[in-house]
Design goal:
With 129 residues, the chain is an alpha/beta fold. 35% of the residues lie in helices and 26% in strands. The chain contains 3 helices and 4 strands; from the N terminus they run βαββαβα. The chain has a 4-stranded mixed beta sheet, with helices on one face. The longest helix has 25 residues.
Length: 129
Amino acid sequence: MPHLIVEYSANLESRLELEALMAKLRDVAVAGGVFPLAGIRVRAARRDRYLIADGDPAHGFVHVMARIGEGRAEAVRRAQAQALFDALRAHLEPLRSDQVGGLALSLEMVEIDPVGSLKLNNLHERLSG
């Protein structure tokens, strides 16, 4: 873990530099020393249907959901969330300053309940050798 899910409004797609954003988020997650590389998943979901504030179609949004395994201290979660959000803000600053409509950025870090979280992968073994 974490799984980082980037949701974004379709009207921003051509200017997001999505692959670079996803790589930056991954790199920040690794750099924090909290999450193993083999546990990180970053994916993006374009949202074609959305309504933001007053409905102006020029408004856009980017939301990052960071889903992590449970058990980390609150201070660790807060620091990691802030580092991810800072990377998101920095990446999108050029877009924010020239966006015709408003731009809403958000990040939410949530712990996954281990009772219903099942996993099977060989990434840890493959990346450790």
